[in-house]
Amino acid sequence: MPINLTILGSGSAVPILGRGVTAQHLNINERRILIDCGEGTQLQMRKFRVKFQRIQYIFISHLHGDHFLGLFGLISSMSLLGRTTKLKIFGPEGLEEIVRHQFKLSQVYLSYELEFEVIDCKEKTLVFEDNSIEIYAFPLKHRVKCHGFLFQEKPRPPKMDKAKIQKYKLTLEEILAARRGEDIVRADETLPNLDVTHGVEKCQSYAYCTDTRFVEKLPAWIDGASLLYHEATFTKTHTDRAKATGHSTAEDAANIAKLAKVDQLILGHFSSRYKDTEGLKSEAKAVFDNVKCAEDGDVYLV
Ligand SMILES: [Zn+2]
Ligand SMILES: [Zn+2]
């Protein structure tokens, strides 16, 4: 399972009992990433057994409080508990200033290094890569500058079909060629790659899109994602409110999922005006069938 996503907070604006504000923990190919960090995130991590000292990267979508006010407490606790490994935070312009200013005024000297990288893009942009994953950012449409993220596995070499190794008596050079995706060319025959391997597996990906109006380019940017989290703050009976506050309806989210041909849609960032999520879910389901409403503590495996 390359992707393990834990919903730490699925609400919007104000934390309420049973529904925290936005935060998620993503483990993709053993890279531990926190996405947004609303107030109370560190307690949610304890509750849902996410080890916060193992987090390597934090991605902050925008500077509304329900997406980053938990950062100060989390960064501080990591230091009090003796963290020594560097923590890298990706987020909008101004985030570093706010965080550093807070610790400067309270004369706190952290036990580890904090590194910031500003995210500010007008198109889909690669913001991080290592040998097994890529992370892209793209602009959303909200009241302040806001970005979505696509976390994606890099293609892995095809696995060998062991029976075929014996059948064709493949040499080491031939196996290495097959693992590079090449056909095996011999003097007297050519063995197509798919004949000796199990083929290239689909690269799994996770798209995170919160706090946004409908974005026309979004389906192209997250095309074919395995899993999509899209905010659905309102139902379409509150479309005016959604437009005025820079948010989406459940139907908007489902339209994005359908146009992007994702495998699964998770709705979240619900307005606390809704006592349950049934109305949001059925509105989305009319457009896109494979949909779930996020609850705090939910785990999605891909
Ligand atoms: Zn929000
Ligand atoms: Zn917002």
Q: What is the name of the CATH architecture of the largest domain? A: 4-Layer Sandwich
Q: Identify the overall geometry.
A: globular
Would you list the SSEs in sequence order as H and E? EEEHEHHEHEEEEHHEEHEHEHHEHEE
| CATH fold name of the largest domain | Metallo-beta-lactamase, Chain A
Number of domains: 2
Strands in their spatial order, largest beta sheet: 6-5-4-3-2-1-16
Write down the overall mean pLDDT: 96
The helix fraction, in percent, is: 25-40%
What does the oligomeric state look like here? single chain
Given helix and strand content, the structural type is alpha/beta
List low-pLDDT spans. Answer: none
Strand content: 25-35%
Total of helices: 11
Provide a quick synopsis of the model.
The protein has 302 residues and is of the alpha/beta class.
Secondary-structure blueprint:
Layout: E1 3-9, E2 23-28, E3 31-37, H1 41-47, E4 57-59, H2 65-68, H3 71-80, E5 87-91, H4 95-105, E6 114-118, E7 125-129, E8 133-139, E9 147-153, H5 162-167, H6 172-179, E10 184-185, E11 190-191, H7 193-196, E12 205-209, H8 218-221, E13 227-231, H9 239-245, H10 250-260, E14 264-268, H11 278-285, E15 291-293, E16 299-301
Parallel strand pairs: 3-4, 4-5, 5-6, 12-13, 13-14, 14-15
Antiparallel strand pairs: 1-2, 1-16, 2-3, 7-8, 8-9, 9-12, 10-11
Bound molecules: zinc ion (2 copies).
One zinc ion binds near residues 142 and 211.
Protein model, in words:
The chain has 302 residues and is α/β, with parallel strands linked by helices. It has two domains: 255 residues, Metallo-beta-lactamase, Chain A (4-Layer Sandwich), CATH 3.60.15.10; 35 residues, no CATH class. Helices cover 26% and strands 25% of the residues. The protein contains eleven helices and 16 strands. The strands form three sheets. The chain has a seven-stranded mixed β-sheet. It has a seven-stranded mixed β-sheet with strand order 7-8-9-12-13-14-15, covered by helices on one side. A hairpin with a 3-residue loop joins strand 7 and strand 8. The longest helix has 11 residues. The protein is globular. The termini are close together. The mean pLDDT is 96. One zinc ion binds next to loops.
